[in-house]
Amino acid sequence: MVVSSLQTTEAPTPAYICPFDRTCSYLNQAAAELEMDDNIRVILEHPRKVVTVAIPVRLDSGKVQIFAGHRVQHCDVLGPYKGGTRYHRAVTLAELSALAMLMTWKCALLGIPYGGAKGGIAIDPAQYSDGEIERLTRRYASELIKDIGPAIDIPAPDIGTSSREMAWMMDTYSMNMGHAVLGVVTGKPLSIGGSKGRDMATGRGVMIAVREALMELGQTLEGVKIAIQGFGKVGGAAAQLLHQAGAKIIAVSDASGGVFASEGLDIPALSTHVAANKTVVGFPGGEPVTNAELLTLPCDVLIPAALEDQITEENADRIQAKLVAEAANAPITLVADQMLESRGIKVLPDILANAGGVVVSYLEWVQGQSFLFWDEKRVNREMEKLMVQAYHRVSQRSQEQGGDLRLAAYTLGVGRVAQAIRDRGLYP
Ligand code: GLU
Question: Is the CB of 358 under 6 A from ligand 1?
Fold first, then answer.
């Protein structure tokens, strides 16, 4: 345990290791592989700055409710902090600290000049009106006004937030500065400096990573059976793109439940159903399946694209896929990760598999800083280039050093940050 005050996640079993300690454990493995100076390792296992603010929001009823808003800034050695803003009832500082650290390794691995951060508020946004969410978001942004900025820390969407919240954050920041600041957040609407391709970017990156992994196994996406947990911004986009590439999406799910069709779901028809009903449940072109059942269905590729801790020691021995792509951050527990590895199941780690989102965030920030906007083809091409290069760097590293793709990805990402610390030196 590293930062005891961050340990607020409840332990479902005695063997449970929370995402923060798990990320530290992977960091330690990479540090050992790199024979890293322990003075650098200890710097990397602590977030540099943790901000918690009280956010009073006047509800539509007239009552004032206080929410706790957080921003964890893990490391800014390579450039401004970067990472999403999560609105979810289970948000804790421990979770955000893990996610912030993952962002540091993700950006370093992809070679983009950012550090890692993550923000969030423990709230179930579905229980609040649009006006309440707007007031919450604007007050949160204004409480963080000195901690964010295009050269300081650049928030983006995550679970429970979208381009709508980013527009409110950008507007709040800009009104305080007295001029429009495009680079303060990414994932903005196109009308205020958003990038073409950003909404599909994480799902597109997942598709590219899966495609490259299959290619190494001598396979293409054509006819490959894929189960996806989650049908939101990430899972939904991945389903659509993988379906277009010829894969059979045999099951998808959302928070309410899932649907399954052994010969593949009609994804465009399912998207129409979701647009009308706000859930995949009740889709006539498939049979009902629970979120837990979906994970253990017979398939070639499993894509957890929802929350943390979905593949655990309870179900890891029943996973039937040959390849698991972590579209979500930290969906596999430490023990489950070892179980999958010993069963020969290949895992595409989160810091690689879901990096397409932050890569296009970077491209959006570059466009905003230069006031020059690209067409979607160019955005997708630049992102694809970075994802393909990163995949092959990781794959090659894992062959050279032995060990799985996660250790290879961590070794590369952590190694790059450690090198920067060595080059910059310790202040003062
Ligand atoms: N929330 C996304 C992630 O976890 C995107 C972060 C960003 O674009 O800054 O990677």
Answer: yes
